[in-house]
Amino acid sequence: MEEKTVRMKDTVSIKTALVFPQDTNMHGTMFGGKLLAYIDDIASISAMKLCRGPVVTASIDSVDFIKPIREGDSVTLEAMVTWTGRSSMEVLVKVTAEHLMTGEKSIAALSFLTFVSLDESGKPKPVPKVVPETNQEKWLNETGQRRARYRKTRKNQSKELIAFFAQSEEDFNGTQGGNV
Ligand SMILES: CC(C)(COP(=O)(O)OP(=O)(O)OC[C@H]1O[C@@H](n2cnc3c(N)ncnc32)[C@H](O)[C@@H]1OP(=O)(O)O)[C@@H](O)C(=O)NCCC(=O)NCCS
């Protein structure tokens, strides 16, 4: 049977928002947590465009906040699925800030996220393969396997940390009775 495929460009999602005072911190720049919520939201839309079913966020790779986004700027998020495993999908999100008075644009953040497609019983479900077409898409896709391997290593390290806390008798404040 022929493997189901989806073109990378058919997974693209784009969102633009204005940065309001309630989105900012005491320095007048955007809250990282607010931007993370936008990133997770748009990335999940791209993942669902690929698998056309429910997904969960499995992990967010390091998010580099490259430039501050200021109150009154617009923020544009572009997402697309860059690599697919069996049930997992890697999504790249690029965040661009625009100073609306001058038109100056800059990349404010970049992040890779991994989503897992779930079946009716909440178990990981196979996804269609994403197909790159342009040179940029091909590069992102070819380098995806390496990033996925790195995530596996990182997940194993998290498991070690969980095992450590599970046997620890201390809370963070040093009192007894931790044990997660
Ligand atoms: C994500 C989740 C479904 C994975 O379940 P699991 O039992 O670990 O499943 P598996 O080990 O079979 O892994 C399934 C796929 O997820 C990938 N995966 C699992 N954990 C991952 C992680 N931390 N980062 C990246 N990929 C991950 C695996 O590599 C595998 O990919 P593949 O099928 O393409 O080879 C499960 O850990 C979960 O439900 N987590 C909570 C998700 C959630 O609530 N998200 C919202 C955040 S509040």
What structural keywords apply?
flat, 180 residues, alpha+beta, binds coenzyme A, 6-stranded antiparallel sheet
Overview of this structure, please?
It holds the Pfam family 4HBT. It comes from Fervidibacillus halotolerans. InterPro entries: Cytosol_ACT, HOTDOG_ACOT, HotDog_dom_sf, Thioestr_dom. By secondary structure, the chain is of the alpha+beta class. It has a single domain (5-167), classed as Roll (Thiol Ester Dehydrase, Chain A), CATH 3.10.129.10. Helix content is 29%, strand content 31%. It has helices at residues 32-51, 135-142, 144-167, and strands at residues 5-7, 13-18, 55-60, 64-65, 74-84, 88-98, 105-117, 129-131. Strands 2, 3, 4, 5, 6 and 7 form a six-stranded antiparallel β-sheet that branches. It has a two-stranded parallel ribbon with strand order 1-8. The longest helix is centred in the last third of the chain and has 24 residues, at 144-167. The N and C termini lie far apart (47 Å). The mean pLDDT is 95.
Summarize the structure in short.
By secondary structure, the chain is of the alpha+beta class. The chain has helices at 32-51, 135-142, 144-167; strands at residues 5-7, 13-18, 55-60, 64-65, 74-84, 88-98, 105-117, 129-131. It has a single domain (5-167), classed as Roll (Thiol Ester Dehydrase, Chain A).
Q: What is the helix/strand order?
A: EEHEEEEEEHH
Task: Work out the helicity level.
Answer: 25-40%
CATH architecture: Roll
Low confidence ranges: none
Distance between the termini: 47 Å
The small-molecule ligands in this entry are: coenzyme A
CATH class: Alpha Beta
Radius of gyration: 19 Å
How many beta strands in the DSSP annotation?
A: 8
Write the CATH fold name. Thiol Ester Dehydrase, Chain A
Class per helix and strand makeup: alpha+beta
Bin the strand percentage: 25-35%
Question: What's the domain count?
Answer: 1
Based on CA inertia axes, which overall geometry fits?
flat
